[in-house]
Amino acid sequence: MKLQVITPDKLAYEGEVTAVTVPGSAGSFQILKDHAAIVSTLEDGKVIIKSGNGEEVINIKGGVVEVKDNNIIVLAEGIVQG
């Protein structure tokens, strides 16, 4: 699957992933290969990215996620450093 995490300022992440967990407004959920198409709002929280290189966490300030045809786009309002 291909993941992009985009903020108004920059492309924060782009790459191939095996799983992504996002902080959905109704609770966190995981996206795996061949996930159904979805658009969901996101709360402040952690985007947990799993790939062949291990695990990476990006803390976001709200936003929206779109999943379609194994492409995941996270449009985040911002990235929280720390």
UniProtKB/TrEMBL annotation:
It holds the Pfam family ATP-synt_DE_N. It is a peripheral membrane protein. Its main location: membrane. It comes from the Bacteria. The keyword Ion transport applies. Keywords: ATP synthesis, CF(1), Ion transport, Membrane, Transport. SUPFAM superfamilies: Epsilon subunit of F1F0-ATP synthase N-terminal domain. It is found in: Endomembrane system. The keyword Repressor does not apply. Residues 1-77 form the ATP synthase F1 complex delta/epsilon subunit N-terminal domain. F-type ATPases have 2 components, CF(1) - the catalytic core - and CF(0) - the membrane proton channel. CF(1) has five subunits: alpha(3), beta(3), gamma(1), delta(1), epsilon(1). CF(0) has three main subunits: a, b and c. Produces ATP from ADP in the presence of a proton gradient across the membrane. Belongs to the ATPase epsilon chain family. This is ATP synthase F1 complex delta/epsilon subunit N-terminal domain-containing protein. It comes from Sphingobacterium thermophilum.
